[in-house]
Amino acid sequence: MRFPGIRLLSATLVAATLVLCLKVTYLVDIDGGFSPVISLPQAIAADDPAPTKDVRVAAATPEQSAPDAEAGESPYPPDSLANRDPSTFSPAEIALLENLARRRDEIESRARGLDVRENLLEATENRIDEKIQTLQSLEQRIEAFVERHDAAETEQMKRLVKVYESMKPKDAARIFEDIDM
After folding, report:
1. DSSP code string of 92-144
2. For labelling, which of 56, 93, 103, 148 has a CA lying 20 to 30 Å from the CA of 164?
C-alpha cells in the first residue's frame, strides 16, 4: 500500500528532528540550565580528568612570576602593578585587584560551564548521528523490500497475462465477466 504524498526519507527526517527537539527540551531546564541527566561534577570529571592548579593573575614580585627570567628583567611593563611592592598599594588599588580576581573567577566558572555544555551537546550530537545512521539503514532495507515486492507483483501479473493469452477467447471472456474489478 502506497501513500502518494508521503516519502519515507522526509518522514524519517521529520521524526528525527522531533526526537532531537524533545531530547534538547528534556535536557534544558526552565531557567536555561541543564537538567541533572548528567550532573555537573560528572561532566566536569569527564572533561578534565586531572585537576589543574589554580593560578592567580599576577605574582607579587618578578622573581615569583618568571623564575627563568633574568634578574632585573620583568616580563611585565615597567609601570605594571606586578613590579610594585604589594605593601605600597592603595586601598582603591587593592579593591580593584580583588574585584578583578572575583571577575576572573566568575569568567573561569562560566568557561567551565560552557565546556560542560559543549561536551553535553557533542555527546547528544553523536547519539543523534548514530540514530540517523540507523534510520538510514532501515530506510534502505525497507526500500529493498518494496522493490522486491513490486518485482514479485509484476512477475505474477505477467504470469496471469500469459495464462489468459493462452486461453481460448470464449473461456477468457467468461472468466473476465466473473472477475470483480
Report:
1. HHHHHHHHHHHHHHHHHHHHHHHHHHHHHHHHHHHHHHHHHHHHHHHHHHHHH
2. 148
Mean pLDDT by 10 residues, the chain (181 residues): 68 86 71 55 54 44 46 70 77 88 95 96 96 96 97 94 87 81 66
> Could you tell me which of 120, 132, 133 has the C-alpha nearest to residue 26?
120
Distance between CA atoms of 26 and 38, rounded to whole angstroms?
12
Q: Under 8 Å CB-to-CB from 76, ≥6 apart: which residues?
A: 58, 62, 65, 82, 83
Residue type, 94: I
Distance, in Å, from the CA atom of 151 to the CA atom of 55, rounded to the nearest integer, reads 71
Nearest residue to 40 via CA among 114, 146, 141: 114
The three grid cell numbers given for residue 148, joined into one nine-digit string: 522486491
14, HSE (Cβ side, Cα atoms, 13 Å): 6
